[in-house]
């Protein structure tokens, strides 16, 4: 259970933005420009839909083609120029019940007077066999949270983006061997991370290889893999960290605290406010959203302006549907 905010804890940020894609970065630009103390918590440049996009040619004012990660980096640099802070971390839970919101992440706890949710829709709609049954018993989605439990053991990391590589590098502090299972023929990660990966002797990359299932009785004992040109292979491991992506809104960390639509997206009003005062949602978390970076960015701007209004006297704002 999360501890309530008290005076002995650090001063809360004015705004914490969860997710650093086009929606979150644009919100950070406007929030920081309004002199709000702003923090963005994000998993990495290529963790979201835009970050893994190879070429973009239709973003207004940015002649293409430009890589998705490059476009996000430009937005972040602009936000930082106004004073926004960025931290690489993964949010695992929130407490939105108080006037000050508590954000629990893998590397620590953060506090905010207003929160903007911009985590996108890369969540998975289906799991592999054995994943759910062994969740918390060797299956994990957060190396920074659970890595220490695997000291001296062999583990697998599954994914093909910055997040997967960063988590594998973090696990190298603890695990004796890490097998990075990459379902695509190449890793879609930043060049500096690829350089770190190649220099890490305890990490073996397996390209073009799928995770078929996770096996074990009371805990993870092995994963079953298949390369594109090969047969099934059983790999003994004590844990598996899964960073596969899909098209479902990422809201699991909210633990049911906010109202959703029948489609499973967050419900917001015209100012992007959710069912909780001071909590806003933008971008691909909204079912009605047209999945374009420029529209996600516009959502972030609307939410930042609404958050600034909320923080300066509009404490009783209620969503339009109430």
Strand and helix layout:
Blueprint: E1 13-18, H1 22-33, E2 38-42, H2 68-81, E3 85-88, E4 91-95, E5 101-105, E6 108-117, E7 139-140, H3 143-146, E8 154-158, H4 162-171, E9 177-181, H5 191-198, E10 203-206, E11 209-215, E12 222-227, E13 232-236, E14 239-242, E15 279-281, H6 293-311
Parallel strand pairs: 1-2, 1-6, 2-3, 6-15, 7-14, 8-9, 8-14, 9-10
Antiparallel strand pairs: 4-5, 5-6, 11-12, 12-13
Helix pairs in contact: 1-2, 1-6, 4-5
Provide an overview of this structure.
- The protein is of the alpha/beta class.
- The protein folds into two domains: 176 residues, 3-Layer(bba) Sandwich (FAD/NAD(P)-binding domain), CATH 3.50.50.60; 104 residues, FAD/NAD(P)-binding domain (3-Layer(bba) Sandwich).
- The strands form three sheets. Strands 1, 2, 3, 4, 5, 6 and 15 form a seven-stranded mixed beta sheet that branches.
- Strand 9, helix 5 and strand 10 form a beta-alpha-beta unit.
- Helix 1 runs parallel beside helix 2.
- The longest helix has 19 residues.
- The protein is globular, with a radius of gyration of 20 Å.
**Do you know the CATH architecture of the largest domain?**
3-Layer(bba) Sandwich
Radius of gyration: 20 Å
- Percent of sequence in beta strands: 15-25%
**What is the name of the CATH superfamily of the largest domain?**
FAD/NAD(P)-binding domain
Given the helix and strand composition, which structural class is it?
alpha/beta
Largest sheet: 7 strands, mixed
CATH top-level class of the largest domain: Alpha Beta
Weakly predicted, low-confidence segments:
1-8
CATH fold annotation of the largest domain: FAD/NAD(P)-binding domain
Shape: globular
SSE pattern, N- to C-terminal? EHEHEEEEEHEHEHEEEEEEH
Overall number of domains? 2
Distance between the termini: 29 Å
Instruction: Indicate the percent of residues in helices.
Output: 10-25%
């Amino acid at each position: 259970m999360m501890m309530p905010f008290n005076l002995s804890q650090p001063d809360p940020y004015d705004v914490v933005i969860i997710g650093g894609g086009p929606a979150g970065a644009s919100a950070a630009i406007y929030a920081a420009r309004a002199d709000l103390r702003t923090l963005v918590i994000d998993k990495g440049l290529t963790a979201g839909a835009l970050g893994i996009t190879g070429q973009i040619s239709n973003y207004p004012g940015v002649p293409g083609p430009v890589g998705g990660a490059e476009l996000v980096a430009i937005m972040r640099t602009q936000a930082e120029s106004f004073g926004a802070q960025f931290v690489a971390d993964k949010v695992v839970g929130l407490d939105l019940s108080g006037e000050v919101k508590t954000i629990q992440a893998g590397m620590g706890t953060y506090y905010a007077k207003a929160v903007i949710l911009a985590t996108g829709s890369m969540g998975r709609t289906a799991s592999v066999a054995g994943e759910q049954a062994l969740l918390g018993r060797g299956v994990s989605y957060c190396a920074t949270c659970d890595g220490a439990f695997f000291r001296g053991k062999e583990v697998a990391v599954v994914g093909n983006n910055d997040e997967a590589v960063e988590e594998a590098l973090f696990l190298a502090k603890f695990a004796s061997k890490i097998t990075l299972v990459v379902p695509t023929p190449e890793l879609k990660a930043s060049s500096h991370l690829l350089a770190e990966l190649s220099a890490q002797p305890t990490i073996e990359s397996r390209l073009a290889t799928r995770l078929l299932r996770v096996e074990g009785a009371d805990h993870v004992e092995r994963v079953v893999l298949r390369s594109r040109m090969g047969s099934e292979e059983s790999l003994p491991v004590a844990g598996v960290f899964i960073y596969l992506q899909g098209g479902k809104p990422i809201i699991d960390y909210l633990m049911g605290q906010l109202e959703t639509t029948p489609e499973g997206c967050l419900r917001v009003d015209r100012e992007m406010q959710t069912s909780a005062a001071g909590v806003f949602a933008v971008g691909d978390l909204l079912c009605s959203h047209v999945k374009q970076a420029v529209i996600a960015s516009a959502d972030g701007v609307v939410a930042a302006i609404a958050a600034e209004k909320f923080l300066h006297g509009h404490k009783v704002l209620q969503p339009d549907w109430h």
